[in-house]
Specification:
alpha/beta, 13 helices, nine-stranded mixed beta sheet, three-stranded antiparallel beta sheet, Alkaline Phosphatase, subunit A
Length: about 475
Amino acid sequence: MFPDGFAILNRREALKTVACGFGYLALRGLAQEAAAAEDPLAPKPPHHTPRAKRVIFIFMQGGPSHVDTFDYKPRLVRDDGKMFEFDDARTLAKTRKIVKHRVMKSPWQFRPYGECGRRISDLFPEIAKHADDLCFLHGMHTEGIAHGPATLFLHTGSINLVRPSVGSWITYGLGTENRNLPGFVTISPSMGNGGPRNYNNAFLPAAYQGTAIGRAGIPIRDAKIRDLVNNRLSLAEQRRQFELLQALNADQLRQTGGTNAELEAVISSFELAFRMQQHAPDVLDLSKESKETLALYGIGEKETDSFGRQCLMARRLSEAGVRYVQINYGDNTNNPAWDQHSNLPKHAFHARATDKPVAGLLEDLKRRGLLDETIVWWGGEFGRTPYAQQNGTGRDHNPDGFTVWLAGGGVKRGFAFGETDEFGHHAIRDKVHMHDLHATILHLLGMDHEKLTYRYAGRDFRLTDVAGRVVHEIIA
């Protein structure tokens, strides 16, 4: 017979008290599975001990030039203006032959920073101060030579199939840390180059869809979650209305046999929406931050105010328990922000808008003790060519070699892995495919990318498809 207060027994007491203690553990496991089925966002155990709890992805839409930012190439200076043949995938797709292009040096100087001595462009003087916290992946390569396919591949691991996004996979695998907020939030996403497909759940249950706050092209001051606050009814009246609505939905679900996935998703979304009305406004209220913190992100300064607000909002959401937050720097066109085909100097405009906010985010996470358990991922869908496009003043797309960087979350600090050739054109050593990066991020979060699967249409799908390896070399 169970003693009084059995429900609050600790694990050891339960094993001592319950006959066939390990049978009890199995029963508890079944109960957890049932609870997860009832609440898909409930926290789930990882496959192995995680190094990080959450991710903040800073998406630089359009493909910032690695050879002008973080991948220093002296040969571009030495051979500036000379003509060389480049076996470029984009040129081959257009002309079906290898042609000569004019090498173009970077307009910006590179300087060594930190104890690690990593060379970083003058485009990012504030981020450069955190060089000893960054882990550079210089041998990145990916699929897709145009923005649309490459952006979809970055977010979903697929170019042409409708597949779940990274954030959806992560919340599917781990659930959320805060039941009163979504597990996956994307701030100011673009409607171009895949649009909502970049944060959708595809065939995963609807609970894993990303929640968008604002959209590209709208000032972040005006970005809101619609109908988050109801000023017409009191909280008690809202609760009665909500309970009546859910009772009607539950009755309809029973009439359909209790197995209507779409209706279950609606019921679950209403429950989350009601909880969010009580908690999200406080999390999204940046006025609660000190003047010093606002200044750290560049809030109040013309060039950095908008993106600074996005970065601070991401910190607040992450600190509150949102598992995956994506910050988007871009616009709603098919020729997005960093896409300088004919005006490379405009990189300076985008760098000024993002440098201080990103550096502020890194500093703020460190101060709060959050960086060690948060993966910060900075990068675009591809890089850019070392030559001038059509002998002009810009650079073309380059999916064959580029740089992203990570910070926190168990990666090595002040470290560089991989290498492109002397021009920065092709990844040649310690190459990291986008599937590998996805696999590594999942691993740091405690998930095996080969085990994180979902059966759909008779096949087990995963973020990394049938590829991907964990890049253990960058893990501290």
